[in-house]
Amino acid sequence: MSEQQKMLSDMVDSLFAELGSSAAVIDAWDRIEELGLPSLLVAEVQGGFGGSWDDARVVFRLAGYHALSLPVVEAVIANLIASPHGAEGRGTIASASEGRFADGHFTGVVKGAVASEGASFIVAPSLDGGALVLRTADGLRQARETLSGEARDVWMFDGAPAKHSKVDLFRLGAFARVAQISGALDGALSLSVDYVNERKQFGRPLAKFQAVQQNLATFAGEAAAANCAAVGAAQGLGRGAGGFEVASAKLRANRAAGTGAAIAHQVHGAIGFTNEYCLHRLTRKLWTWRSEFGGDSFWSAYLGKQVLERGADLFWADLTARTD
Amino acid sequence: MPSAKLGLVRAGRNSAIDRSFTLQTFIAHPIPWPDNAAALRAKVRELIAGHPAPADPAYRANSWCVPDPTFSRKLGAAGLIGMIWPKAYGGHERSSLERYVVLEELLAAGAPVGAHWMADRQHGGMLLRYGTEEERQRWIPGMARGEIYSCIGLSEPNAGSDLASVRTTARRRGDRWVIDGQKVWTTGAHFAHVMIALVRSEEGSERGVGLSQFVIPMDAPGVTIKPIIDLTGGHDFNEVFFDSVELPETALVGEEGQGWRQATAELSLERSGPERYLSSTSLLLELIRHVGPNASAEVCSLIGRLTADLWTLRMMSASVAARLAAGQDPALEATIVKDLGNSFEQAMPTLVQAAIDLDMADPAPIARILNHLLQVSPSFSLRGGTSEILKGIIARGLGLR
Ligand SMILES: Cc1cc2nc3c(=O)[nH]c(=O)nc-3n(C[C@H](O)[C@H](O)[C@H](O)COP(=O)(O)OP(=O)(O)OC[C@H]3O[C@@H](n4cnc5c(N)ncnc54)[C@H](O)[C@@H]3O)c2cc1C
Prior knowledge:
By secondary structure, chain A is an alpha+beta fold. Chain A has helices spanning 3-19, 25-34, 53-65, 72-82, 169-198, 210-239, 243-268, 279-291, 296-310, 312-321, and strands at 91-93, 96-102, 105-114, 121-125, 131-135, 139-142, 152-165, 200-201, 204-205. Chain A folds into two domains: 3-165, no CATH class; 169-320, Butyryl-CoA Dehydrogenase, subunit A, domain 3 (Up-down Bundle). In chain A, 54% of the residues lie in helices and 16% in strands. In chain A, strands 1, 2, 3, 4, 5, 6 and 7 form a seven-stranded mixed sheet that branches. A two-stranded antiparallel sheet of chain A has the order 8-9. Chain A is globular, with a radius of gyration of 20 Å. Classes of the chains: A alpha+beta, B alpha+beta. Bound molecules: flavin-adenine dinucleotide. Residues 151-155, 160-161, 185-187, 237, 379, 382-383, 385-386, 388-389 of chain B line the site of flavin-adenine dinucleotide. Chain A: InterPro entries: AcylCo_DH-like_C (IPR036250), AcylCo_DH/oxidase_C (IPR009075), AcylCoA_DH/oxidase_NM_dom_sf (IPR009100).
């Protein structure tokens, strides 16, 4: 980690720890703006922080680790795509769009808009693999929530002015979720380790039981895999389009999220199943993120098809050429 | 709302995730891939292409256990063994990441590298570090040429996972050491020239105390090698008996009584390489070839998942290599990579078997390779430390033991 990245990481770590999983946009968004976080990926010449993909990974990971309730990750990506188009105010992203875009106008539906109430603009994936930038003032919001209480709104637009971007938002959304999953897994692992060292049964801490140790070792491996996948995805984006890397990373992180969340709950027993204890703040997000911006079936079909088209003889050569 | 009933919730209230000190088990190190990586790969690929393919395609699987002295000599002549050793001992003074590139190329292609693998991976380096000058001169240049092979003398009948209970002894007799006892599961003992053995050099000592390492020439009088045939009918590992085997003083590797420390350091090298996740790669490649571009959705998605796993493991494995290259000791990370890597290479044969229909007696490469891997893959999570033992090490790293 460079000196600059370390500073960014420390700063963001303490802010996210403080804001945690309950801060509301209306009260706390200023704190995020003060640090200039939303323009993390915006070029310096455009007044942004000019951060790298790995800087973004570090920030997104910490948002996952602290189960941050504020849509910082989404704002960072929305600004990267929308700032060249002059968008202002708080932006967020959506995970799908259906409809027609022609002559700079969009008619249709945008789905999965994250915490979009009060946002100024939304960036949604377009059908051609790019993105559309839409003003919320031009649309109609229908509030929707996941079962775990996360706002994923639907928006209707009718002939709304829209800007088109070639940036593959869906891919960036998947990258963001990988980094968040990697952080949330480390967070849940950390909770689990603390818990089993404290909780006693049969006269000793749970940590002393080999079955518990082996489960948590498996969990650590999954968390490690998700973290490395996130690093690899950031490198892939830094080197080029990153399609292969992000696909692989999301697929791997999705699996890690499933295994990790299950073990975290298992070692916590009933307490982890309560609303009061904080584990669910992480695990319920993990379960949501697994589906967003491509679940296992989507990315495995994407990757499998790509690999099969290239054939066996190019498999290893392609893999190594991506890093050499 | 604090409540007596949920007293334990307090542990979670001001909890790990609300603190601004975040746990990170695996530090992913940026990997400075060598500038000449592509050229090195080309060189290795050319060498493999010029070497006759194995008669049975099954031998492209788990290929670091397939000995082929002719191929080893070719690699030696091309400067691809002992790449990081000093030139004075026949090495090539390359960087360890250059070596890593060569290793992953060889393994991914299923090249028969079993003869020299242990010498290149651990024993050459260990002799350079701890061995006496006589022993270095005697063994290392031949190892670098791909002509001298070595084997690992750790396990004994009553010392498997519990390695600290080794009972083979070394006793001083005048200016000689005398070895008595037995090793078992010794891979390659029947073609190796030399063993590095962990033995008890202090009478009455227990556990990790009083152990030392020795270089034992396999043709020394008193050494007897008995084959152990594995479940495939193959002969890879052996029993090795020592009956008053006399060694010169120079055969002691490192310090007397420091064997445990030295041997466990060797284990982290033994555990961290790319062979710990690439043993089944030939099956993935053969599957891609077998099903072709119009594969069913099920197989296509399996290939996607295996690819994602392989890509991730490569990142993890190379990251460990990069940290070793930077002079750090990523023992915990290395253990995680071996455990995950072994699970991956072990799971692949059953996943592939479930996804395609095959005649198990078909001589086609896909069936031969799959069959072979179904049978040998149980050993992947045993050799080099079982998955349970590895998870125990990881648990210790997490602060659970
Ligand atoms: C193909 C192959 C090649 C090998 N090559 C070599 C070689 O070249 N040189 C060499 O020295 N050795 C070699 N070995 C031996 C290998 O290191 C041992 O098999 C391994 O250390 C396990 O020892 P064991 O077989 O005695 O099993 P055991 O230790 O008896 O274990 C049996 C089972 O019990 C479990 N177990 C044991 N202790 C515990 C515990 N404390 N907690 C939980 N579970 C436990 C194990 O995980 C395992 O599942 C080789 C093994 C194989 C399979």
